[in-house]
Structure formats: structure tokens, C-alpha cells
Design brief:
elongated
Length: 201
Amino acid sequence: MVTDRVAAALSQAAPKTAARAAAEEALLDAAERLLAEVGYAGVTTRGLAQEAGINHGLVHYYFESNENLLVQALERFTGRLIARQRELYAAELPFVDKWRTAMRYLVSEDVSYQKIWLELQALAWNNPDIRARLARVNAEWRAVLTEAFEQPRRELGIELPPDALVSLVMTFNLGIIVERLGGIETGHRELLDWIEQWISS
């Protein structure tokens, strides 16, 4: 009987066929949808396979574990969003317009990603390997914001060091995300409007 470890090694060594690439993408898509819809606790190997329309044995054959598949789904999702954010901040627009767009993403368009991020954060609390991978995702976001905020930090006269400013914005975003996922939006619009006016002044 071939063990999971041996199967994984064979899977890694074999050249990736078009069929395998398509199956992996289908599983990653399924992982995104299920994490957003039912959360980590509701995701099973059979559920992933059924959602992707493939044999359930391929989940572990291709990804070794559900957890690895779920984290890869987050990493892929992050790559798309970071490319979008870099394009946004590189645009020839006033910073307030970039901020307004980023906040629209925060409160409406990126809710699925936010739920996936928090679901896997909880999983990572007791899993050092996943925690390290999520730390790398977090570092990617910090790098984007550090670059994006350098010029407006100077123009607005913000005295916080760059790392501190990025941490402030990221924890601010996280607070809004957690409250909104819990159905709480009290004061959010007012706070975002105040910040927008301050940036514009």
C-alpha cells in the first residue's frame, strides 16, 4: 500500500499534465468557495472534491492535506489582490482617490477573502507551519502598504515611522473586518468619512 508521503513524493516528481493543472485549479477554486461559505470546520475532503467535481482521492494526492490546499488557495487569492493593489497605488491619481477605492474593497468587494484569511488565522494558532506561511502573506501586504504610504506620509506630515503607520492601517482594517463579519457596522461609515476628509484637507 502506498503511503500518503510516498504518494506525495511521486506526485511532486511527476510532470504536471494539463488535466492535473485543471484539477488543481478546480480544487483551489472549491477551497475558496467553501472557506467563504462554510468555514474551515465545515470543509471536508469529500466536500472539496464534490465542489470541484473530481475524485476525492486526488485531494491528498495533489496537495498532501486539506490544510495545505486551503493555505495554497489563500496564497493564490492573495497574489491576485496584491497585484490589484499595486496597480491601484501605482496609478496617477490623488492619494485620497486611492484610499477611497481601497476602503470600498475593504467594506464590500473583498469580504470573501477576509473570511478566508480569518478562518486560516484561527487554524494557524495551533499549527506553526501554517502560521509561518500566513506570516509571509502578511509580509506581502505590509510591503505593498509600506511602498504606497511613503509619499502620502510625508505630504500629510504624519510623524509615525513607516512600519508603525502600516501596522496602524492594517490593525484598523482588521478591526473593521472582524466587526463587519460579526454583523457590526456601527460608526464605520462615519470613521471612514472622517479619515477621507482629513486626507483631503
